[in-house]
Design goal:
The protein is α/β, with parallel strands linked by helices and 335 residues long. It is built from 10 helices and 11 strands. The radius of gyration is 22 Å and the shape is globular.
Length: 335
């Protein structure tokens, strides 16, 4: 464990009180207090425009615009470089470091433990850890189920193609929820499932989508960038994930399950600012009831009765009367 650690915000407040005595003696020393904006840094392993990361960036920029935080980030950080970047931000005195630990779990937790006065909030498949390692994820399985209902009711070929990044729990549960929603309204629908083993490779995702179209898919689940491009080129429909791309693909995006990171980020900032941050699982803040997830549909592309059924199910979810199953197992093609 390093012997030199950043001060917590509480310690900074105590330091300010001590410095006040010095200042009253006639010395000019910059003050720091707990009301100062929370200093936040984010570490991204992909470009900031990638859909998952862009939601975190959007929420942090909104908090910065409100004056609650200062925000800096590093993007395209290699897994082998992740520890170094984490340490650098901690050494700079960041109050909160946000990132994704999926491929660097042990390394990220090891670094966090060395800086107990810095709060860490990391996307993770695993649980929180003392003293300062909180976790989150985009739990948008609920709107994914609803978008599946729309797709199942809209397909004419009864074949839906699904292109994902990696077969990890965070992706699997969204795809499984989508499949369950589709089969709930159309038991005859079949699925083609492919993982490209990359978080950001639009050409590879597009190629996989083309192969599915050749096998009869008339709707594509676009978990990765590139899939909607294939759908647009071939004149079929696509289901969006995490972000709303309907404006970029007019007439192509049938429905989308959207992730809103603001509830998660805002809660973490609130806790850090009040010196009450505890390592916890912030995942539930992505649920629809917290405003962390939402469902949208282009009603001009979907049957009216399908839209009505999906909206009724959405209200059941919000009222706590329906729970979408959480299935983290790897989804498989059914044809």
């Amino acid at each position: 464990m390093l012997t030199s650690k950043p001060f917590s915000r509480a310690r900074r407040a105590m330091l300010t009180a001590a410095l006040a005595v010095t200042v009253s003696a006639g010395l000019s020393i910059p003050s720091a207090n707990a009301a100062d904006p929370v200093k936040v840094a984010a570490i991204y392993t992909v470009p900031v425009e990638q859909q998952w990361v862009s939601r975190i960036d959007k929420a942090l920029k909104a908090a910065q615009e409100r004056g609650e935080i200062t925000y800096t980030f590093s993007e395209n950080v290699a897994n082998t470089d992740y520890e170094r970047v984490m340490r650098e931000y901690a050494e700079q005195g960041m109050d909160l470091v946000v990132g994704e630990a999926f491929a660097v779990e042990r390394a990220a937790r090891k670094v966090a433990a060395e800086y107990p006065d810095t709060a860490f909030l990391m996307g993770s498949s695993f649980g929180p850890a003392q003293p300062n390692f909180g976790v989150f994820d985009n739990w948008i399985h609920e709107p994914s189920y609803l978008s599946g209902m729309i797709a199942g009711a809209t397909t004419k070929s009864n074949v839906i193609g699904m292109v994902g990044g990696y077969a990890i729990p965070e992706v699997n549960r969204l795809m499984n929820a989508f499949m369950e929603g589709a089969t709930a309204v159309n038991p005859d629908v079949k699925f083609l499932v492919t993982f490209i083993n990359s978080w950001y490779d639009p050409p590879k995702a597009k190629e996989a989508a083309f192969a599915m179209i050749e096998k009869g898919a008339d709707i594509l689940y676009a978990e990765r960038f590139g899939v909607s491009d294939a759908a647009k080129e071939k004149g079929i429909l696509a289901i969006g994930n995490v972000i709303d791309t309907a404006g970029d693909y007019p007439g192509t995006i049938l429905s989308s399950a959207l992730w809103h990171m603001e509830p998660t980020i805002d809660k973490a900032i609130e806790l850090v600012a009040s010196d009450s941050f505890e390592p916890a699982d912030f995942g539930p803040y992505s649920f629809m009831s917290y405003g962390g997830g939402s469902f949208v549909v282009d009603e001009s592309l979907a049957p009216a009765d399908a839209v009505a059924a999906a909206k009724a199910k959405e209200q059941e979810i919000l009222d706590g009367l329906f729970r979408v199953n959480v299935n983290d197992t790897e989804p498989k093609s059914t044809m």
